[in-house]
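Can anyone check this?
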Amino acid sequence: MSDLRFVRFDDVRTFLEVTKQADDYLMKNSGALSIYDYLGAPTDPTRVFYLAIYRETLLMTLVYGIKEGFPWILSGHRRAEDVLTPETLTLAVTLLANSISTLQFADPSIVSPLRVFGVEEPVNAFLTAWVGIQRGRGQRIRLKPNPTTVFVTYATRNTLTPLPPRTLMSPQHIISRASMSDLESLMPLYMNFFSTKSWPTQIIPTEALTRLQRELPTGLFWVCRTDGIMSAFAELGSVSPRTITIRTVYVPPEHRQRGVAEALVHTITRYYVGLGAGAMAVVPPGPPPEGVKEQVKLNVADAAAEELYRRLGFLLPHQSPDGRALTGGIDPATGRPGWYRSIWRESEQEPDTSIRRARRNEGTPRKRDTSSFPDVYIYWI
């Protein structure tokens, strides 16, 4: 393990500068965090962590504390895949897990339980190493089963070019970058989005207002108006020299099934890969201020939306009926899959089986006849 190096960055701007050239569709996990989340994060070194593993080149990063309610974010990049053999991956995640154990944490819940979001294989390998190390130190922990899984994918100029013209899209959809003048009409949609999703933390109106006031001037919010009424918004983030991420697309129920999401995502994607935004968009002429990108990334957590994104050029695979065999979604330029599975997984305390055994040996469960506690079984000792 001598040629592997663990690095902790104390300054977020240094971390972002070092990692931006490696920021392809794998790095920073397609919008789990945006650049503004990093820059607006707390600075307490016992609560915010920017970590990396190197072997000549950057292999992976692990960050925590950037956004309240989020887990640790484990990221890699495509160029590291060729050197990240199963043996190297095991060594790298073991070094990372051991190194985390030496850090100072303001709150034990930062690592107990340890929650991690990232590419499926590295996350599983890292948490397996972490659990093994902690068990070796006498901790009774295990991997929690049934992690949350999403697809991360991207579209490129090559995948979009062959698409037929969007002749079925309604000309009544007008799409534009949002500005501060959109704040009042955007607020209800933004609040509704947080209230209807399974979100790690809830949001109150004052917090939503503060977020929008901070992020609208960046130009990374887009909106769609249908017949003059705001019908959808999209939030972008994770801007790097080569990529940009569609973090959120929200269409309220009363505007669904009308092609709104398709029009919005299609317009944004074409705009950022340099194919022009199209007739439905109201944007200044010329390239995007953020620059033309090689890839537009997004997460797909809803299986019902997968076909929509395939039609728009995103490289999603097809699954067999049992959900196991995956085919397609190959990038025509590289011959490699243009997607990966990302998971949110955590460790947990093992249940104390000795208490269960003692109870089984000490008595027999009997049903208590009471309307106050229906179907509760009491052990009489």
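Reply from J.R.: I decoded it. The two ends are 54 Å apart (CA to CA).
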